[in-house]
Amino acid sequence: MQPPSRSAAVDPFNNLCSGDKNGIGGTVTAGNICQGLSDGTLAFDTQRTDGQNKLLAAQAFKAQQTEQAKNYWQQAIQQEPYDAEALIYLEDQCVRDSGRPYIILVATAILEGVYINSGRSDLQGIFFAQHEYNTYAGLAQCQHIPAIDFPSTNKGTQHVQALPENTLVLVVIANLFTDAAHDKEASQQIAQQIIQYQQSNYNPERFIGIIGLPTSNITGFAMPILNRAHLPAVSQNASGDNLAEDFPYFRSVTPTNNDQARALSDFIQVNLSDKLHKKLKHGLILGNQDDLYSQNLADDFEHNFAGPDTSSKRKNYSKITPQYNIHNILNTALDKGIDFIFFAGNSDDASELLQDPLLKQEPYKHIPIIGGDTLYNLRGNYPDTARGRMYFVGFAFPDEWDQQQQMPLFLQNYGKNPLSWSIFDPTHKQCPDGPYGCDRADNHAILSYDATKTLLEAARRALLRVPTPPHLTEEVNNQLNELHGANTVQGVSGLLDFAPNEDGVTRLQNKTFLILSIDEKANTHIEYIEQQDHLGS
């Protein structure tokens, strides 16, 4: 068998990126990306060292040569032990080989473009939850998948509870192609494909829901379709204000845009003003006019910052219309009366902003740049002009448990003390791209783990109520509504309490999140913890 070429994002050999009648398969998008659903039949993230072995595994799996496929996945993991796509496919095959009952969830990720590191981390968090549940249920250890180290005592470690009858967990991966011009089409297409897969002959009684829909834009386009099909989705990162209200089958483990805008407004007027010994009263708000999340966050901050002694100027940039690019908008809007910039775009756009010559000279050389959770990119490289001036929301941070007596099992097995090893770096190899994603968890891995744990806890409760339900997803959604009070889920990022608000809409309540900063040495630090009493223990 000849190894495939790796010269393009989609490798055409053996026509791997194609579909079938059960919803498994892919299509080549405008960006030459393979978008679709894979149970091992496809390999999405192939532009890495183990890409050839994953493609060969997919070819073998599609030909029903499962032992050969397992061999290639094992080789891939030996090359890159932190590649969660390969780990998930191998774990899935071990689940099938066991002959035991299992439930199915679809994990959506973006394994291309500017979001590729986030997508890789998302799959790490999802894999860890899958592996944790399966290990706890007694699944025999798969070769080349490291064992989870369960401490001798349950106290403080937040162990999961095994699913009824030691049911196992199988994960199907959905890869999304996303950019400003194609978000809607891609999101709706993947939603329809998930429904097709769920409704295939053998899945309705085992399918429990979706993890992911990793951005507010994708969620807004995909959830109308998934909601009509009564398929629950738990997002690790979508923070749009009205998503829970508009879609009863949607949950997120993150606070809303309004929550973070309110906290940032207070932080600027009190904490940051005190730190800089200057009252920050006048802001320039920059939002991406082509991005629903950005517009929502900019609206929320403008509303929360408005007051008798404060003011803001709102401007929108565009990644599609050249005359409204970031630099043109900044140079026409920034003046000496501006105390700070509130940037509602993503980290890629923020890097572009920070390269503007205007921000490298007086009087704007040190002007604070403040934004929401999409500016938090631990594996991205901001230019030097970010140092000492950037502040942003983090929905999770690996150091937030440092002052706690007991650390979550997830962090312990990801290389955080007291253990000195990582499940994604078991042989202590040098991490090629730094510690994050190898032996230090980033925010995306943490939040994806929490989202998966939330959905699996709802599934556990659903299976106890209806052991062989004809429509398991309906009961899973009902049980998501019950995860509050005594049933609150302890996540790594904080307590996950889904309770109805005054309007009867079930959404996350009182969730811990942080405001972080980049210091003069380019290190990320905690500046402020919102709702820190709800971190748990």
From TrEMBL:
The keyword Transmembrane helix applies. Keywords: Membrane, Transmembrane, Transmembrane helix. The keyword Lipoprotein does not apply. InterPro entries: ANF_lig-bd_rcpt (IPR001828), BCAA_transport (IPR051010), Peripla_BP_I (IPR028082). GO terms for cellular component: membrane. Residues 167-269 form the Receptor ligand binding region domain. It comes from the Bacteria. Pfam families: ANF_receptor (PF01094). It is found in: Membrane. This is Receptor ligand binding region domain-containing protein. It comes from Ktedonosporobacter rubrisoli.
